Structure formats: structure tokens, C-alpha cells
Amino acid sequence: MLRFLWDSISLQMLFVFLFVFLLVSDYMKKRKPKDFPPGPFSFPFVGNLQFMFTSDPVATTQKLTEKLGDIFSMQVGSQYFVIINGLPLIKEALVTQGENFMDRPEIPLDKDIFSKLGELSIEIPDMHCQYFHLSNMPEGKREAMTWLGIHGLISSSGHLWKQQRRFTLTTLRNFGLGKRSLEERIQEECRFLTDAFRDEQGKPFNPYLKINNAVSNIICSVTFGNRFEYHDEDFQNLLRLMDETVALHATIMSQLYNGFPSIIKYFPGSHQTIFKNWRLMKSFVFEKISKHKEDLNPSESRDFIDSYLQEMAKPNGSDFHEENLVACTLDLLFAGTETTSTTIRWALLFMAVYPEIQARVQAEIDAVIGQSRQPALEDRNSMPYTNAVIHEVQRKGNIIPFNVPRQAVKDTILAGFRVPKGTITLANLSSVMFDKKEWETPHSFNPGHFLKDGQFWKREAFMPFSIGKRACLGELLARAELFLFFTALLQKFTFQAPPDTILDFKFTVGITMAPRPYKICAVPR
Q1: Domain of residue 25, residue span
Q2: For residues 60 and 54, is the Cβ–Cβ distance under 8 A?
Q3: I need a labelling partner for 320 at 20 to 30 A (CA). Which of 194, 327, 377, 465 fits?
Q4: In the chain, how many domains are there?
């Protein structure tokens, strides 16, 4: 009977049967839970993959919000996402029920970068690195490390994240966060940056690398104990790797890897370049750690790496190990460089396009600070317009439009919908920063959004650093850097578009939304 049936089934019928079987299996596997937020039509097997490749994710999400409401779902492969919009709902999720959305999801790219310890060994002759490999570690220590999840500060969860964040905050405060000593480091770097701009003699140049180097030097002085010269070849290589990696995270192959890692890992593409870049960056940091070990003084701590090595030596420091140190250091470098650097680039672009706003900022700088001394943080309270302009740059620049992803720690009811444990949630900060109910002219660059009766006005709908317990731990440092760098540059220069050039606000999407590369003229005042 079986042979008869087999012989009577044509190849076409067999393919139809297999296709129907796979469709039914896919449907059964991806059935939405009861009371799950609504979502757009999803295709079999790939879900809503088409939305991952849009050139303007903010505009696309806004259209979906208008159609589906302030909370809706999307699906990529077998993974569901819930997107949360609007100030009330985002506050509900990140603050009121913040404990229920505290974890980070295991995004395949992040997981493979920060949890595969055995893949760190790589030859990089030009960087003179000390190599680290899991197999070189003592067996007991190796076993203790392999069960850990994603390392570091940004992508880790649970006890590991709380422990690393608490230690990092304490260490940053010990090295000057919120104190005059760190302010002086920023002021020193402002002098180096203004000198570098002055060397361009008012001619068109791309300010990106100079700004990136200056901003990165602040966090480097805390993590490594020293700054780097703008012509330091090894450090310039590191910055280029960081820049390339930020951009590659938004490419098609990287997004496909996050949706279908078991298949895409066998293909060439940008995801393979990301892995290579991270190995190079890890090796750079391992070299710095090795040098710190050589001259470590257990009774004195020079920087973050020293403090971490001392913590590793304590009897109860099982979660403090080299892989976590590398991950935390790279997280600090990325978070302490990319976001502030990108914001300053947006700021100079806005000033060049809106010369009347730039002139008003310079008038306030001249009245409060003058030209004979450097800007100081204590000047901020006396400069409401400049402060308002910086905040409007952050609002309009919108560099982290969808926040960093969260994951539901347990089944949670949100706005009447059920969000099951393990569901990835995205807080659409753009929906708040451009909400016409919160801002008078949401799509225009308008410093008046942050002014009331001539004084600076703090707005609840302003949340570029996110909100809740997982808000950016470097907010205090970033705010200080933005004020001091911005005022120092506008104190000494007027920024203009090059002759016969029209600047625009087109952006590139990566880990951040950054302005497309541009050239500008820094004309000495």
C-alpha cells in the first residue's frame, strides 16, 4: 500500500504537501498569545522583515502607530517585538512597571560578540596585542565564566548587570564624575579641540574625526588613565573600527543575522566584518589591560581598569573577570564616544544652517563668559538660551530613536494587552520627542521649546538618555561634555557652510542616527 501511494504521488504533489505542512507549522509556531498587541500583516516564515530595511524607521513607525495605536507588535522570524509609543505609556513601561521590563534581550549579534569567550584569539601583528583565549585560563575559572550570559554594561541582565553597573557608577564617581577634576579634563580637551579646528584656518573640513577623538579622550582618561593624541595611529584605528561597526549594525546582512542567525552565519557580509572588528577592538583593550597588570599597585587605583583588576582579586569577585572587564570598557568607550560625538556634529550642523540662532548663542557666551577665559559648568545656569539650544539639538537630533531594547522579565499587562515573559520591547522615544501634543513646533528646530519667561524650562517629554533604572549611566558626564565642548567651540569660531554648498539634515542609520558626513568652515572669531 505504501509503495502504491508513493508511486502515485507526483513530485509536484510532494512539494505542495511539504509547502502546506511548513505553512501550518509556521502558523502554529507563531500564533500570537491571547490579548497580544495588534500588528501589521506578516508574511510566512519571515514575518515583518520588510520593515527592517526602511530608510526612515522613525517615519515608518509613526505610520504604523497612527494605524495600530500606541502599542503594537511586529514579528521577525520567530521573534515578536512590542513597540511602545507616547509619553504616558513609555513612563508606564519604563518607570511604573520598570522592574517588569528591566532585562536586555539576547540579540544574536550582541550575544555572539560578548558571550563567546573562546573566539577572542586572533593574530593582529600591527597592534602588538597580547592574545587571550578561553583555553589558556585555569579550569576552575573557565567553568565559572562559561555559564555567564552576555557581558558588560549595556547588553547584560539581572544580577550581573546590577553588579557591573553599581561598580562602574562608584568607580566613575571616584574618578571625578560630577566633580571639578573631571570638568578640568574636559576643559583641557576643549583646548586641544579648538587648536585642531584653528589649524584648518577657516577652510572646509570634515569635523568628525577631531570631535570623535576629543570626546573619546574624556572616557579614555577615566578608563585607561590617559588621553590620546589626535595623530596616534593605533587610537585612530580604534576610532575607525568603532565608526565602521556603528554603521554596519544597520545593514541588511546584520539585520538578517539577528533574525535568522543559524542560517546567515554561513554567508559572507557585514555581520562577519562586525565580528572581525570586535575581535580587533577587544585585542586593543586586552593590550591595555596587560600593561596595567605589569605595573599595578594594589593600594592605589589610577583608572577604571586598575579598579576592576583590584576587584577581580577579591575573594568574592567571581563575576569580575577579564572578559567582563573588556566588555565594560568597550561599552564605556562606545557609549562615551558615539552618542556625545554624534550630538556635537548635529549641533555644528544646526548652527551653520541657522546662523541667527548661532549668533544669539555667541552673544550670550560673550556676555557671560567673554573671550578671556574658558567656559565652566557653573556658567550653565546663567546661559538659558545656550542651554536651550543644546537640549533642542538633542531633541531634534534624536540619535537613539528607539531606545536600547528591553525584554519582559515576566508576563505583564500593559495598556490592557498581555506582554508575555521574554518578549522584546522597544520604547519609541521619537514618539515623545516629536509629539505635537508636547511640543509647539515638533518638526522645527526651535530652542523656544526649552524657554519659559526667558529662563530654561525642563520638559518631561525630553528623554534622550531614556528614563527609569536602566537610563544612561553616563548622563551626567554627557551633559557636562555637551555644554563645555559646544560653548568652547562657539566661543572661538563661527560655523558656516563651505562656499557654493548647501548643508542638509540627511542622516545615516546605525546604532545611532547620525548626520551624513559633511564639511564645514570654522571661521575664527
Answers
A1: 1-31
A2: yes
A3: 465
A4: 2
